[in-house]
Backbone:
């Protein structure tokens, strides 16, 4: 009402009075705009806070291993990352595919090893080491031979410990090298100088010791 009255009065008032009335109108308009702007900004701030809270939840991203993030990259890039992988595979004659496949196999074997170590804590003790060192050694061996099973790594470790004193050339690394070339444990031991019977007896002893260690939790 005061605003309407002020507008009507401006028609009849003198120039100084009209100017005073117009200043009041300008001030009132400024206050209304300021209040509206503040309310709008506060509403956006609350909305952003909720979104930020949800987005900053704890915990690692879903998925693990060498494939983690490839799906998101493909979606966010409109498939361009898939095109890039395809081009890389073509230009490298498939070597990039081979590398990714090796990483997948190694990652899968590493997860199985973790499960084995968690379920059989007696195995590292029987090998005169601890779980962390045994795991690290296996992870390093997977870089050379991604198909190496944890069971064969444990066997190679035990065989090296049992045989190295009598046969200095038989070490865990030498056995792992034979396995990486595609030879079996028995074949590798014979390649390193054991007879067929000696190889069989050495593997039988190592298997028995490892089996006992798995039961000793």
Residues:
């Amino acid at each position: 009402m005061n605003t309407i009255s002020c507008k009507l009065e401006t028609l009849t008032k003198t120039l100084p009075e009209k100017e005073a009335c117009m200043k009041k109108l300008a001030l009132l308009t400024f206050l209304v705009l300021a209040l509206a702007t503040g309310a709008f900004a506060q509403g956006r701030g609350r909305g952003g806070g909720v979104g930020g809270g949800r987005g900053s939840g704890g915990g690692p991203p879903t998925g693990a291993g060498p494939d983690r993030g490839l799906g998101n990259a493909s979606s966010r890039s409109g498939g361009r990352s898939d095109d890039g992988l395809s081009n890389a595979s073509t230009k490298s004659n498939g070597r990039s595919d081979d590398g990714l496949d090796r990483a997948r196999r190694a990652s899968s074997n590493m997860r199985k090893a973790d499960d084995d170590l968690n379920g059989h804590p007696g195995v590292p003790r029987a090998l005169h080491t601890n779980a962390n060192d045994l795991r690290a050694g296996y992870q390093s061996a997977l870089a050379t031979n991604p198909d190496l099973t944890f069971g064969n790594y444990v066997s190679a470790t035990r065989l090296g410990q049992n045989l190295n004193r009598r046969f200095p050339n038989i070490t865990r690394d030498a056995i792992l090298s034979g396995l990486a070339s595609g030879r079996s444990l028995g074949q590798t031991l014979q390649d390193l100088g054991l007879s067929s019977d000696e190889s069989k007896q050495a593997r039988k002893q190592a298997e028995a010791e490892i089996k006992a260690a798995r039961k000793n939790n």
Residues 20 and 178 are 100 Å apart (CA to CA). Confidence is low (pLDDT under 50) at residues 1-13, 39-63. The longest helix spans residues 15-55. Residues 97-215 form one domain.
